[in-house]
């Protein structure tokens, strides 16, 4: 039997406009940029993990001769991801986003008592900030 998976190392979202994505995730959310490769991708450090923002028009292409053999990938439509935020920091983050002109789409108190709120990035991806108790973590 294989050992249990330890967690999620990276997650990916897709955006056609990497300049807008880089400005949003770097300036508005304050994530540390790890690298950017042209119009293909921009990667950010996020806690213990990495957030990958890809341009699907580029990542759907097969790798060039001599490049790393990463299989083509991409998606159509808007994705979703959730940021882990301490319960006591949710209001501060919500206010920070609203001050930056980011609309909050929903603020939910879930049946288990945990809270989260939703907003969008410039590509239309659905983003969420939630306290870890939403999934009985911590």
TrEMBL record:
<dbReference type="InterPro" id="IPR004360">
    <property type="entry name" value="Glyas_Fos-R_dOase_dom"/>
</dbReference>
<keyword id="KW-0560">Oxidoreductase</keyword>
<dbReference type="InterPro" id="IPR029068">
    <property type="entry name" value="Glyas_Bleomycin-R_OHBP_Dase"/>
</dbReference>
<feature type="domain" description="VOC">
    <location>
        <begin position="7"/>
        <end position="132"/>
    </location>
</feature>
<protein>
    <submittedName>
        <fullName>Putative glyoxalase/bleomycin resistance protein/dioxygenase</fullName>
    </submittedName>
</protein>
<keyword id="KW-0223">Dioxygenase</keyword>
<dbReference type="Pfam" id="PF00903">
    <property type="entry name" value="Glyoxalase"/>
</dbReference>
<dbReference type="GO" id="GO:0051213">
    <property type="term" value="F:dioxygenase activity"/>
</dbReference>
<dbReference type="InterPro" id="IPR037523">
    <property type="entry name" value="VOC_core"/>
</dbReference>
<dbReference type="InterPro" id="IPR050383">
    <property type="entry name" value="GlyoxalaseI/FosfomycinResist"/>
</dbReference>
